[in-house]
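Database export, one record per block. Field names are fixed; values are copied verbatim from the stored entry.
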Amino acid sequence: MQKYETNIRVRYQQTDQMGFVYHANYLVWFEIGRTEFMRSIGLPYIEFEKSKLYLPVLKVYCEYKHAIGYDDLLTVSTSLESLQYVRLVFNYEIRREKKIMAGGYTEHAFINEEGRPVVLKKTNPFLWNRLCRVLENDEK
């Protein structure tokens, strides 16, 4: 499975009174991982926006396995799990060294400027084919 890894160092402002990372920050790290993954496969989000296409989050899931604290160096691994005509799913794993600290996924829809779902294969075959190639490479 094609993964992209992004390193993040926890900042003090990301922790709560107990000294642990506030839970919503994990979703920000998912976004960072997703954005860098898309850039790594040659499809930065700006390419979708130029085509008047957007990828809002439909679902998000995060399982917190171990506490993360200030100044921890983390690696966010991101992969494309599935691609359907109007949606796609990304998987994430957040590690500190080799220990898995959290994991989860986000599901996104392809929508147009009016906020209506679109079939990416019909709307923009280039973007669709590029995403399909990523998944095909994963299956080999």
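Remark 1: The CA atoms of residues 37 and 106 lie 13 Å apart.
Remark 2: The chain has four helices and five strands.
End of record.
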